[in-house]
Specification:
Layout: H1 6-10, E1 18-26, E2 29-39, H2 46-66, E3 71-77, H3 89-92, H4 102-106, E4 111-113, H5 116-120, E5 134-139, E6 152-153, H6 157-160, H7 164-167, E7 174-179, E8 192-197
Parallel strand pairs: 2-3
Antiparallel strand pairs: 1-2, 3-5, 4-5, 6-7, 7-8
Length: 203
């Protein structure tokens, strides 16, 4: 990558998104899904906010233009909340309190920010901070496959793993579930796939 490029700077000096295209098959039902893993710039400074915002803009443009009509799941450590930014008002200027990923939140015709409900419920996806910064956003064409209310933060692992925050991560896993059929009978509930955001240290 070009270290002099704006994209290199916005994506935390070269920590670019990673896309994996997978054919997910369950009980003979298949769907090609593009998973895009991101790790946004950390911290709540004005510089970090702008870098996340510009990175989100570039990712949004890429998905809308290059992956149009394809199934997409964007997931990872966004290092910002979706309902409102973690950055203070005096550092973000006229954009406050908009999330640095507001372009995805506002584009309801194209994306479903599934973890936004967790943000609004005042949950937290890390051990030390009272915000959700680990998110899952999926393309609108997957909405019929989404299992309602299945987006969860698995903070119970902190009670299962000894010294979880020091031996494992300061983030909790985030879980979302999909069915691979638009309509599902009660006796077909097992035909599902689950997507997790596993914890990673914040940088």
């Amino acid at each position: 990558s070009d270290r002099a490029s704006a994209s290199y700077f916005h994506w935390t000096s070269g920590r670019f998104p990673l896309m994996m295209t997978s054919e997910v098959t369950i009980n003979g039902v298949s769907k090609e899904v593009n998973f895009i893993l991101i790790h946004g710039k950390a911290q709540n400074s004005a510089d970090a906010y702008e870098r996340r915002k510009n990175a989100a803009q570039s990712l949004h443009n890429y998905v809308v233009n290059e992956l149009k009509d394809k199934e997409v799941v964007i997931l990872g450590d966004f290092n910002d909340d979706l309902d409102a930014t973690i950055a203070p008002a005096n550092l973000t200027g006229p954009d406050w309190p908009l999330s640095s990923y507001d372009i995805f939140v506002r584009d309801t015709a194209t994306f479903v920010p599934s973890t936004l409900t967790l943000s609004r419920a005042k949950e937290n996806s890390t051990v030390r901070y009272a915000d959700v910064i680990d998110h899952i956003i999926f393309s609108k064409n997957l909405q019929s496959n989404y299992i309602n209310f299945s987006t969860q933060i698995l903070d119970e692992f902190a009670n299962i793993i000894h010294n979880y925050s020091t031996t494992t991560s300061d983030h909790y896993p985030v879980k979302i579930r999909f069915r691979l059929e638009s309509t599902t009978k009660i006796d077909e509930i097992q035909d599902e796939t689950t997507v997790y955001v596993y914890p990673n240290p914040s940088i």
